[in-house]
Amino acid sequence: DALAPDVLARMQAVSAELIRVAVRRHPFGNRGPRRYSLGRTTVVSETLALADAPPVCEVLRHIWQSDRFSVQCTGGDFSLPGTEVQELHIDMPPRTLADTLYAFHDPAHPGRNFLDLPAPVVKVYFPMVDFDERTGPPRFVPGSQWRTAHEDLPPPGTWEPASVRAYCPKGSAILMDQRVWHGGTPNVSEVARPMLSVHYAGPWYNEDVLNDGGGMQFYRYHRGALPSQRLASLPGRRRELCRHLVPPPDVPQS
Prior knowledge:
single chain, alpha+beta, three-stranded antiparallel sheet, 5 helices, 19% helix, globular
């Protein structure tokens, strides 16, 4: 398991409260019927207990060959009983906007854009319940992160490429390149299926690559979500990972 039992129990309580708030605000769902995104939850400082899960940090260190990655934000989503299948999608704007949204240029390879790079950011999902045939785990199209730069997603209702479902017990971790084609599956259980998430940026990632006017929140550090005093109180590794979440130096803090 990626999460220690006490951390999992605390995060389950946090997710239950986030679900209650979301359903009150959007009774019918905000990502389709009975399906919800929690948005950025970084201001709920308890969620940062996920940030320094040792098994996850070890895998990220292996991916990036460095321990200088950092947290951009936390988030999550959930589905309620009766949710149907979700269309395949990517967690970023369409590839046709790449030249407009990303200020990346490789003089040695003019045809290469930001979407062709090794994973600049990684999202890690933490299931709060067991993901099985009834609760409806997410499905992923293997290798599709390398197709996103040059190939459109299949239109809804047409042939869908082979995918795998992320069956796993609660407290596990699912690491995802946000360019990968993925989607939810039906929740035919009698319980909500929540998963909290942490977004990490690689050691070389720089927000200057974005030309989005601030709109791509999940590719930006959630600066100001964590007061400096709160950052100073975090355990050592977690404090290092969350270093970009404090307000900019020129912003007064209450």
